[in-house]
Structures are given as C-alpha cells and as structure tokens.
Delta(3,5)-Delta(2,4)-dienoyl-CoA isomerase, mitochondrial
Amino acid sequence: MSTTADEYKFTTLSVNSPKPYVLHIQLDREEKHNTMNHAMWKDMTDCFSKASDDENVRSIVLSGKGRLFTAGLDLMEAAQNFSSSPDQDVARRGFKMAKYIGLAQESCSAIERCMKPVVVAIHGACIGGGMDVITACDIRLCAENAYFSIKEVDVGLAADMGTLQRLPKIIGNDSLVRELSYTARKIGSNEALSCGLVSKVYKDDKELMENALQLAAFIATKSPVAVQSTKVNLNYARNHSIPEGLEFMKSWNATMLQTEDIMKSAGAFMQKKTPADVEFSKL
Ligand SMILES: CC/C=C\C=C\CC(=O)SCCNC(=O)CCNC(=O)[C@H](O)C(C)(C)COP(=O)(O)OP(=O)(O)OC[C@H]1O[C@@H](n2cnc3c(N)ncnc32)[C@H](O)[C@@H]1OP(=O)(O)O
C-alpha cells in the first residue's frame, strides 16, 4: 500500500487504499442508508482536505457502503436542528443556521477543491444531498440499478449544498435541471447517461466498483503535475470566460511547463513506453 490509509480514521467514512496512489472513501452509515448529518459533513471536509495534501494520493474513488449510495439528509437529525431554540431571536437563529448550512456546503466544496480527481461510483438511490455530493465530483459512474432525485422540494426546501449551482454546468440543459429540481422526479441510470449526468453505466455494483477503481488507478499512473494542473484549470474554466481561463492557464503553465515530468513522459514515449512505466516524484 503506497498510501497511509490508516491515518484516515473517521466515524462516518471508511477509507482504504486498494491500489497504488488510489484512495477509496466510502460513506459508512450503512444502517442509516448513509444519510448525511453534521458528523458526516465534517468528516468529508476533513478527509478530502487531507487527501488533497497527501502526496501518496493521486486519485480518489468515492462510493457508499450497503445497498444504496445515500438517502440524503438525515431527516431525524435535521428536524432536531431546524427546530432548536424556537424562542431565540430570528436573526440570531439565522446566524446559527447559516453556520450549519455553510458546514454542509463545505463537505461538497472540499471535493471540488481537492487537487486529486474524484471518481464517484453510484449504486442504488442517490437522493437529495447525494446529488450535491456527486455534482462536486470529477467523474460520475453508476450501476444500472442507480437512480437520482433532487428530492429537496418534497421535504420543503431548496437544495442548498451545490446541486443548483453545479448541475446546470454539468448537464447543460437548463430546462431539464429546472424540471428535475421543481418536481423531484427520479431519473434512472439510462436517463442519467443520456443527459450527461454520468459518463458510464455498468451492469451491477461489482462491475461498477472494479471499473471505478481501475479508472482511478489509470489516472494515478499519469504525471501528478499534469493531472492536478488539469483539474485546477478545468475548475477555473468552468467559472470564468474563455479569455480569463486562457490567461490563468498561461500563468499556471509558465511554471508547470518547466516540470521534470515532461522530460520523463516524453522520454518514455520515445522508448515506446507509457507513463505507467515512469516513476514520477511525489506531489
Ligand atoms: C443544510 C441542509 C443540507 C442538506 C440537505 C439535503 C436535503 C436532502 O437530502 S432532501 C432528501 C432527504 N431524503 C429523503 O427524502 C429520502 C427518504 N427516504 C426514502 O425515500 C427511502 O427511505 C429510501 C432511501 C428510498 C429507502 O427506501 P426503503 O428501502 O423502502 O426503506 P424505508 O422503509 O423507506 O426506510 C428504512 C428506514 O430508514 C429511514 N430513513 C430513510 N431515509 C431517511 C432519511 N433521509 N433520514 C432519516 N431516516 C431515513 C426510514 O424512516 C426507515 O426508518 P424506520 O425506523 O425503519 O421506519
């Protein structure tokens, strides 16, 4: 094992390193359908921030333990939080809620900010908060049995951890985003593939996990300078104009084109080898 997965101890996540430089993070509240609560949001933020800085991690797979990916917000715990301190001044309650929402949002933003690409493998239900999580990931794969729902309207709220901000940029179909967000309609794996929410559907959970890990392992064989630079620039490009993106890229690569990884990768090509044959320095 090239990563120090045993340093990743969390109460709501299981973490291991099944392949060199690959970290596998699993949502692990199986007995509660991997519902998301305060502890899980905090664990996710800490875990993805740690992996971002971990030179033994080059790519990440995220999945859910048990029979589904996640049932979204833990409604029991949320009900307690939403109704706490009813006698307190509304503004003071507002400040408290903003802090709570911010903490939840951070769990998804930490995935997006993480320098290492995150491949998410979705099986069974992906509901509510689950959509916020997967839309912050780099690559979405699912099993045939997967279904997706922006369920928030059915529990009386607007999605607030990133789905409404990220999904339009992922599927590029504003009409469909609005329909799904206003109705909470479930879409199956085939529709998810045809609208561009996922890039591949596998016949069952086993095939999904094998392929997700294989993809992450393949990404991990490439130059970490090249892969991480690509993620940073794709994220930047998504939120800026093309001229701004090109300007950012120019400054970024003014340094990065001086990396030893280019000589190593090109050298491998000349010798009829691949990046997998190259030993890249840690990053
Ligand atoms: C700051 C805010 C941040 C984030 C906000 C996110 C918003 C959301 O995520 S909104 C979406 C919330 N989730 C749901 O509405 C899902 C509700 N659950 C279901 O639809 C189903 O339970 C299921 C996940 C599809 C599973 O169905 P099934 O296999 O038929 O099991 P059930 O009998 O329905 O459930 C078993 C058991 O689990 C409890 N449960 C299910 N989901 C939740 C949940 N989200 N929170 C809390 N508890 C949940 C369910 O009540 C059952 O409990 P019993 O005690 O066994 O009755």
Notes: The domain at 224-277 is CATH 1.10.12.10 (Lyase 2-enoyl-coa Hydratase; Chain  A, domain 2). The mean pLDDT is 96. The chain has two domains: 5-219, 224-277.
